[in-house]
Amino acid sequence: MKLLNFIAFLFVFKYANSSVYFDAIQPITVAQFQCAINSTVGGTTEQLKYFIGRIWTSNGKSDKTGIQNIQNFLTATNYFLVPQGYMFPCVSDGCPSASDQVKSAWNSVKASLNTSSFVLWVDVEGENIWPTNKTANQFFIQELVGQANSLGLRTNIFTSKTYWDLIVGNFKTLSTSTLLWYANYDGQPVCYRKYFLK
Length: 198
What we know:
The protein is an alpha/beta fold. The protein has a single domain, classed as Alpha-Beta Barrel (TIM Barrel). Helix content is about 35%, strand content about 20%. Strands 1-2-3-4-5-6-7 form a seven-stranded mixed beta sheet. Helix 2 packs across helix 3, helix 3 crosses helix 4 and helix 4 (about 100-115) packs parallel to helix 5. The longest helix has 17 residues, at about 135-150. The chain is globular and about 45 Å long. The N and C termini lie far apart (about 45 Å). One of its GO terms (molecular function) is lysozyme activity. One of its GO terms (biological process) is signal transduction. InterPro entries: GH, GH25_Enzymes, Glyco_hydro_25. Belongs to the glycosyl hydrolase 25 family.
């Protein structure tokens, strides 16, 4: 399979050290991961090094395909890296609490990957998905991140400035150790780290 076909459905982004991270929701085989790892993505210095699979969906259920993709990536890299995944929390009426969602997501990951360490990214984006009550959204995110940290997970945020402002407003009370995976939709290199400073 050609790398171009494989990369076509991936969300790819670069970290400061020119490592390439990506996520995808379609099934990816070990062979496809190996092909991508052994190829360059954006030039000779940009190697694919990290995969962040979806482990939880906005309908309040674990993502078995995403978790299997993480397993396949670990196999392709000979378990060299700490696994990473993201959850798109369920935020509509009738959803489990933030704490219960994190516990269920982590239990699904542990059962499938047999791992005790994990990096969790929380997806905070989507227009007309989150409730309009920004204060309630802030408490929800704090509860989710707090529960994840209490489970020993390294917890970070995926968002954009537009979505962050829309969903939680001027919310800056997460730990300074919380990293930001910034969705750079506008193409402008801007640091939004300040949104997470205490």
